[in-house]
């Protein structure tokens, strides 16, 4: 008696023992791939480090702009203010602002934002200036304020006197040049040592 064996049908309607395609080969990673990748990262890091060192060296070679001392800057501004001698108010504003800024830079004394009264009151509590310099500065600033705010019209001789007073204060309080040169030489030596240590 013959028996018929029936195979189950697949959902697609074909028989389950259909032949399937061969799977493509599986790629096995090579150990050299990791070596190449790590080598590339290390090379990039080395290049970045060399570029950074080169940039630091170039930056160190660029000479720094010379610092103009406050007394030199104040003298230049006072010289430029002489061009305003025929205009009393702008002249007094320029001269008094120059003196205030000079005192701020020279003695680290906050001067430009304060009123004359506040400025002189706080200055009296310091030993930045001698007693006669404080008195002279007080007269100078009050005279400038008369022109700036009270519309006082001074003669040219008075304006020249204000200019002389401002210039005298700067000259009397400018630092000793020998000490300044010694300090600058010490700063230059320290910078040179720092650059040598970096190299």
Q: What features would you describe in this structure?
A:
- The protein has 199 residues and is mainly α.
- The protein has a domain at 70-181: Four Helix Bundle (Hemerythrin (Met), subunit A), CATH 1.20.120.
- It has helices at residues 31-61, 70-81, 88-107, 116-124, 131-149, 156-173, 177-198.
- α2 runs antiparallel to α3 (88-107).
- The longest helix is centred in the first third of the chain and has 31 residues, at 31-61.
- The chain is elongated and about 120 Å long.
- The termini are far apart.
- The model has no long low-confidence stretch (mean pLDDT 81).
Largest sheet: none
Can you tell me the CATH class of the domain at 70-181?
A: Mainly Alpha
| Amino- and carboxy-terminal Cα gap | 101 Å
Beta-strand segment tally:
0
Provide the residue-averaged pLDDT: 81
The stretches of 5 or more residues where confidence is low (pLDDT under 50) are none
Rg, Å, rounded: 41 Å
CATH topology of the domain at 70-181: Four Helix Bundle (Hemerythrin (Met), subunit A)
Q: Name the CATH architecture of the domain at 70-181.
A: Up-down Bundle
| SSE class | mainly alpha
What is the succession of H and E elements?
HHHHHHH
Indicate the percent of residues in helices.
55-70%
Strand composition percent: under 5%
Overall 3D shape: elongated
Number of helices: 7
């Amino acid at each position: 008696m013959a028996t018929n064996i029936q195979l189950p049908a697949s959902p697609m309607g074909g028989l389950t023992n259909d032949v399937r395609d061969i799977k493509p080969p599986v790629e096995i990673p090579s150990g050299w791939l990791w070596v190449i990748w790590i080598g590339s990262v290390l090379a990039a890091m080395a290049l970045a480090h060399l570029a950074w060192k080169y940039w630091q060296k170039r930056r160190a070679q660029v000479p720094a702009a010379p610092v103009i001392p406050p007394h030199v800057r104040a003298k230049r501004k006072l010289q430029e203010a002489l061009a305003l001698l025929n205009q009393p108010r702008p002249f007094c504003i320029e001269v008094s602002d120059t003196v205030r800024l000079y005192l701020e830079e020279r003695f680290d004394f906050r001067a430009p934002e304060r009123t004359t009264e506040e400025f002189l009151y706080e200055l009296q509590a310091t030993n930045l200036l001698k007693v006669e310099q404080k008195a002279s500065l007080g007269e100078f600033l009050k005279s400038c304020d008369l022109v700036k705010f009270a519309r006082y019209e001074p003669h040219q001789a008075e304006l020249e006197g204000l200019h002389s007073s401002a210039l005298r204060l700067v000259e009397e309080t400018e630092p000793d040049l020998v000490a300044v040169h010694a300090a600058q030489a010490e700063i230059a030596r320290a910078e040179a040592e720092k650059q040598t240590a970096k190299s």
